[in-house]
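Changelog note: in this version the structure field was regenerated for every chain. One regenerated record is shown below for reference.
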Amino acid sequence: MSSDLIYLISVSVAAIAGLVTAWVATVPLLRFKELRPLTPRDIAAEATSGYQVEIRAVERHARCGKCRTDCHRRDVVPLVSWRRGCRGCGTPMPIWVVLLHLGVPIGAALTVVSYRNSWVAVPLLWLLVVLSAAAFVDARIWLIPKRFVWVGASVGFVLISVVSLGIGRGDRIIWAVGGGLGAFALFCLMWFASPGKLGFGDVRLSALLGMYLGWIDIRLIFFGVLIGSLIGIVIGIWSLARGSGSRFAFGPALAAGTMLALWLHAALLAA
């Protein structure tokens, strides 16, 4: 079997696995709601007081926002559910569901393409799933569950360590740890300097992002934050244009900036 055929199969398998993963994860992610669903959020007050609203997942909360029909896995089948909408009232699927179903398989394929014939892609595929889940929830309720960050970082560090030792680059583990700590310290400073502009969930997420970016190359942390900030500016302008105010979830922008920096790492570092 030729190397090109193996490469094509790898990309196809990654895309199919990504689509299945996105489908299976949709309903569990839709369960996340604010612990205080009837209390108006005051993001600025939460940031200045240090109080963070908790999140819990309750199965009965995965419902249609219009008719309150319970949402099951069969109701969110990719492609089919986009056309059919809610089983109870026909309301179209939320745009975030469609983006999740498209983003994960496309991202998985891009990861394999960017790191062709390399085990480095394995930890990055895990990061893609974690960031997709975090961005999905943050976009919906402006909160990133702590477990996403801690589980994502713990499993990610194990994968990074195994792959680094396997390819004979154990020194990259130190860079990963340094990148995570450095990014976390930077975002902590930003959080203290601009109360209400940055949620502490984003600060926690930065440690995960910095660990992965630092693992590939410490310079990618700069590019990841820069690209994420530019995406955030675009989202902010779009939010203002829609009359939704200047506040928006920054997690999706950070996640997108990180993955773009990882996919484009060769071009960015060469430049």
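Spot check on this record: The first strand starts at residue 32 and ends at 34. The radius of gyration is 19 Å.
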